[in-house]
Amino acid sequence: MTGARNTRRRRTRFWNTAAPVCSVAVVVAGWELITRAAPSTYFPPPSQIAVRLGELWFTGPPSHAFLTDAALAHIPPSMARLLGAWLLACAIGVGVGLLLGRNAVLAECCEPLIHFFRAIPPTVLLPVWIVLLKIGDQMQVVTIVFGVIWPILINTMDGARSVQPLQEDTVKVFRLSGPQRLWSVILPAALPKIFAGLRLSLSLALILMVISEVMGGSTNGIGFSLLAETQRTYDIPAMWGGIVILGALGFGLNSALLAIERRALAPHGLTGSHA
Description:
Elements: H1 2-37, H2 46-57, H3 69-102, H4 104-118, H5 126-133, H6 137-160, H7 165-174, H8 178-215, H9 222-232, H10 236-265
Helix pairs in contact: 2-10, 3-4, 3-6, 3-8, 3-9, 5-6, 6-8, 8-9, 8-10, 9-10
């Protein structure tokens, strides 16, 4: 029985690893065959995109870890804006969300404003941020923060409200202080929903990073170099390469956050969503 169970587990792990790889391989192979059979200037085959991507980004000197000067000039600024704005939104969203989630009166006063502002598309406010903050990193960071803070805030509020009555009674019996109640009861109960908001906001942050760089007059960054600049020069393979880079970046960030989520929830015997 034990041997059969272990065999099933090994097969499950194998297919969990192999299935995504096979699906990607099938899509890429199909894309290659279709674009070779019906050539189009605007839909180059993956092999051509890969060659152009390597020329632009991954053929630098060994001293640069094989990244080109262009990659080193554009990737760090984008990552700084993306992660800096996302972490700022996380700190504000989680802090305010916990406060509102545990204070019903304050929540009733603030929720109409929250739902009003979260309904405003962040790109609509780009001209406002440009007027107030001028073109630059500060404007781009504010754009990202405004767009991604709402799922963090709302999910944190819902999570803070999910403390069970039995847990509330335990807090009263042991007379836990405010910080003890926060770390021992409220945060563990809210963590699954907090991480759901963090993952959603991280995807939105990547989108808004690109939009703010393309529309905000940026002179560097992944969005500027791989989308705006390549579109102006009609370098279609390079433009598709930029899309691939952004997809890979989003996948990598999501995978890293998933790993952090598992480690954070495991001590509490909780599991997060895997959407």
